[in-house]
Amino acid sequence: MTYRVAVLGAGIGIKHIDGLLQLSDRFEVRTVCDLNEELAESQALRTGGTTSTSIAEVLADPDIDIVDICLPPVMHGPVTLEALAAGKHVIVEKPMAASLQEADRLAEAERTSGRLIFPVFQYRYGRGLHKLRRLQEAGLVGAPRVASLETHWNRQSDYYANPWRGTFAHELGGAVLSHAIHIHDLISLHFGRVTEISAMLNTSINKIETEDCAAIAMRTETGALVTSSITLGAADDTSRLRMVFEHVTVESGQVPYAPGEAEWQFLARDEDRQAEIDAVPGAADLPLEGFAGYFEAIADHLDGKASHAVTLSAGRDSIELATAIYHADRTGNRVPLPLDRSLSVCNGFKPSEHT
Ligand SMILES: NC(=O)c1ccc[n+]([C@@H]2O[C@H](COP(=O)([O-])OP(=O)(O)OC[C@H]3O[C@@H](n4cnc5c(N)ncnc54)[C@H](O)[C@@H]3O)[C@@H](O)[C@H]2O)c1
Questions:
Q1: What whole-number distance in Å separates Cα of residue 238 and Cα of residue 246?
Q2: What share of the chain is helix, strand, coil (3-state, %, to 5)?
Q3: What is the rounded distance in angstroms from the CA atom of residue 29 to the CA atom of residue 48?
Q4: How far apart are CA 108 and CA 102, in angstroms?
Q5: CA distance linking residue 190 with residue 169, whole number of Å
Q6: 8-31 burial: b if 16+ Cβ within 10 Å, else e
Q7: Helices 312-331, 181-191: crossing angle, 10 deg rounding
């Protein structure tokens, strides 16, 4: 089946369209909706579809199967609820929700609507992670031990000239919620769910409300320990993961917005096992990477095939992790997960909402 998609928001939405256009036998980009008509029209020239400036008009269109939400963060939750109510499947950019309570409401709405929510985590689709998954499935890496993560990017005033960025009201959070959310998703995927957090956050690079530096320590359900270093004040843009497993030490590439799309290093602890590790194909049987890989997995999932699509629980976990990080920083406590929903931080990330 070919799924008919409406892309809402033509910023990162343009990259979504790039991915969807690579899968023209699975998806048709029927509408691009943006308040900026020129922007929407420039994309419709590529897709051959229509344009709109009205989300309500798009949701009322019976010829749309999937709504792909690439709008500013504060709109994600409300538009997802409206789209489910209109009978659409939803693809939603990060962060999926404005609070853990809202993430729980989305989960309930998904359950009752009979439609599906697919949070966007396109970093999962790349050759390095593909090989890691295959090694894990083959039982060759052993238990996760420690990992260090770097999200060291350069964001300056030109980036924050976009008025929704840097504000709790519209971006909802800073580098923890917005920028490092992808790399934290990868660690949950390959090291297990996070069960305990300590964190220190700063706003020291730009004149914004939200955090732009962080030092975070996590324990995962596998007993492994993870450190995550985040700044938007680096000289360049580097995303890097180094993961030490029982039998193999794995180092990612450093490609800023697609760390999985580079050749990774897989070093066996016991050098006699290196050949076995090297023999597991990585790039040789590579599926599509980045957004195209992400969308292909969704089409497979909707077609009822086995797939590695990102489902709602990953989006909800990412919101819970960010919530726990804010809570750990603001209380100075080590925070256990799952979070106690009666904590006021579960209602929103803005400090005044719970201090
Ligand atoms: N997955 C990733 O790697 C990635 C990368 C960048 C941004 N994002 C996320 O994507 C989302 C959008 O970010 P962006 O950088 O594209 O922002 P942006 O401001 O560049 O684009 C958002 C677009 O939405 C449009 N818009 C706003 N309100 C609208 C409305 N009511 N109706 C129709 N159109 C409307 C704007 O005109 C704008 O063109 C954010 O949540 C951001 O966190 C994800």
A1: 26
A2: 40, 25, 35
A3: 8
A4: 10
A5: 32
A6: bbbebbbebbebbbbbeebbbbbb
A7: 110
Q: How far is the CA of 55 from the centre of ligand 1 (A)?
A: 14
| Element spanning 218, H or E | strand 213-220
Cβ 72 under 6 angstroms from ligand 1: yes
Phi, psi of 9 (to 5 degrees): 100, 120
CA distance 147 to 226: 5
Q: Is the pLDDT of residue 296 over 50?
A: yes
Q: Is the CB of 73 under 6 A from ligand 1?
A: yes
CA 303 to chain centre: 23
Measure the CA–CA gap between 267 and 244, rounded to whole angstroms.
10
Residue 172 Cβ inside 6 Å of ligand 1? The answer reads no
CA of 301 from ligand 1 middle (Å) equals 25
Task: Kindly give the distance from the C-alpha atom of residue 6 to the centroid of ligand 1, in angstroms, as a whole number.
Answer: 14
Q: 125-179: per-residue pLDDT in tens?
A: 999 999 999 999 999 999 999 999 999 999 999 999 999 999 999 999 999 999 9
CA dist., res. 141 & res. 34, Å (int):
46
Q: What is the distance in A from the centroid of ligand 1 to the CA of 304?
A: 30
CB 183 within 8 A of CB 312: no
With residue 130 as reference, give the H or E element that holds it: helix 127-137
Which residues does 167 contact at the CB level (< 8 Å), separation at least 6? 208, 209, 210
- Nearest atom in ligand 1 to the alpha carbon of residue 164 is 19
Ligand 1 centroid–CA 13 distance in Å is: 7
How far apart are alpha carbons 181 and 177 in whole angstroms? Answer: 6
Contact 94/182 with Cβ under 8 angstroms?
yes
Minimal CA–CA distance to 113: which of 319, 312, 338, 315? 312
Structural domains for the chain: 3-122 (3.40.50.720), 123-288 (3.30.360.10)
Tokens 């603001």: give the residue.
330
Q: What's this model's pTM, rounded to 2 decimal places?
A: 0.97
Any idea which residue has 């939400």 for tokens? Answer: 69
Pairing mode of beta strands 117-119, 89-92 = parallel
Q: What is the mean pLDDT of the chain?
A: 96
